[in-house]
TrEMBL record, chain A:
Family indicated by similarity: Belongs to the ABC transporter superfamily.
Keyword DNA-binding on entry: no
Pfam families: ABC_tran (PF00005), DrrA1-3_C (PF13732)
The keyword Nucleotide-binding is assigned to this record: yes
GO molecular function: ATP binding; ATP hydrolysis activity
Top-rank taxon: Bacteria
Keyword list, A-Z: ATP-binding, Cell membrane, Membrane, Nucleotide-binding, Transport
Name of the molecule in the record: ABC-2 type transport system ATP-binding protein
InterPro entries linked to this entry: AAA+_ATPase (IPR003593), ABC_transporter-like_ATP-bd (IPR003439), DrrA1/2-like_C (IPR025302), P-loop_NTPase (IPR027417)
ABC transporter domain location: 6-235
SUPFAM superfamilies: P-loop containing nucleoside triphosphate hydrolases
UniProtKB/TrEMBL annotation, chain B:
The organism's place on the tree of life at top rank: Bacteria
Organism: Methylophilus rhizosphaerae
Protein name: ABC-2 type transport system permease protein
Swiss-Prot/TrEMBL keywords: Cell membrane, Membrane, Transmembrane, Transmembrane helix
Positions of transmembrane segments: 12-34, 64-84, 111-136, 142-165, 172-192, 212-237
Membrane topology: Multi-pass membrane protein
Pfam families: ABC2_membrane_2
GO cellular component, one term: plasma membrane
Coiled-coil region(s): none
Subcellular location, record wording: Cell membrane
Any GO molecular function: ABC-type transporter activity
InterPro entries to which the protein is assigned, alphabetical: ABC-2_transporter_component
Amino acid sequence: MANLTVEAIELTRLYGGRAAVSDVTFSLQQGQVLGFLGPNGAGKSTTMKMLTGNLAPSAGSVRICGIDMIENPKEAKALIGYLPEMRPLYKEFTVDEYLTIAARLHKVASKNIKQAVEHAKERCGLTHMSKRLIENLSNGYQQRVGIAQAIIHNPMVVILDEPTVGLDPIQIRDIRALIKEIGQAHSVIVSTHILPEVEMVCDHVQIIDKGKLVFNGGIDVLKQQRVGNKLLVGLRQVPEAAQLAAIEGVVEVEPADDMWRIRFSEGSQPHEAIVQASVQNGWGLYHIAPDQTSLEDVFVQLTYQESAPAMSQAA
Amino acid sequence: MLNIARKELKSMFASPMGWIILALLTFAFGTYYLNGVNNYFEVMSGAIRPAERVGVTQFVGQTVYGLASFIMLFAVPLLSMRLISEERRSQTMPFLFSAPLSISEIVIGKFLGLVVFLSILVAYVAAMLSTLNIWADIDFGYIFANSLGLLLLVSSFAALGLYFSSLTSQPIIAGILSFIALFVLMILDRFFAGDPTSTVLKFSLMRHFQSFGGGLIDTADLAYFALFIIAFLTLTIRRLDADRLRG
């Protein structure tokens, strides 16, 4: 556990008695990309603000590469690059001017500033926009400037609050590649609403709901939940459900729209048996595919499971 | 800290606002300077008794510095109102907060940025008055005292303006509030003119500026301005810190 870059210990933040974030504990190692998920108002941004020292936690502590954010804020902040939800851009400056200011504020040595600015522009695809006023850039390009600003001092930890908002699909792909690239050497925390994105770029996922961490683990765990053990089968000559259920390995059969959703027991592979049965009995098989619970469903499940007992408590 | 000051200066010159204010003030000071020189000969030719005669430095200086202190009352709130409230409005505060800077550095940096901008004007006025030296033998001590006084006065304005700017996210409101506050502080001595021993009188910015206007550098006045500036900068730092703690 030598390379812990971010440690959040029992972070709690109260807003007038209401806990926006309560008891959030997690850690991140070098070379990991952490996806931060949660419904609106769950406390994602609040947590990120606390991690970056923009907001003082009511209780708990944050450590960046072992440096305490509350005791040594300057040293800790120097290791972080942060893109808040609302892009902090000075619109009266050109891209070059703005990035130079960002580099200077983050204490990049003055002889390296030019190089740092060029490098950041290159990574975010901004080289041909150097002399443009930020005000006149499109939404997507402004977002890129925001990201460039966060990585300009080559920080150990990059924290991006919804980085792909407002970008076109090609740009999104570029940014995802960029996040992966940064994630190899450093640590990245990304918050997002777009679930497939998490799957693509992150290797760790955290789901936060109502200020509490409801899921924290590798992306594989989430993927497994997602693929599950269901098949979606479409048949032209509809047989009895009992006939389907009789196939070995099948546990449960339920109709779904015009098809059948077949749940099979863990470890068994009834796919071939179903196809064979269909051919023998002339059911007219036209569709067979794993029934993927979408990531959304998993997400809803996880956030719902937690809220159910909370509601009963309230009652 | 200096980086913040640099950033502020740059942003003042990035918009027409900074240039326009500079141009207008330069024009106003220039006109008064010219009028001062013209009037000097008229007035002095009428003044026969030696007691009525004053030096050209003092005569012209009084006109120009009197105007400067008055005009700055309008100009400084216009410039200072943006400093923090604009950052709040365009949500750029996190950019500064997440940089490795303490809040004091941010506040003092912003204050310095504005003071450097204003000292361009102060230096300009001093340089303009020094040109009198081509024709006359002028009193540089007088100009120095006045410039110092003016610089301290506008720095106090800037500190107060910065504080009001940190209270709101609407630059205009910050501007109006700081203008009113400054105006009250300026004319406080008029209100209490009847009672020269009143303590309230001691808070008047104008009263402390006046001794500089006479060419007198008094440590009591220096201390007053220094305390004034420190008080408002501290209030601003505390206000921003409250954002981090409670916001």
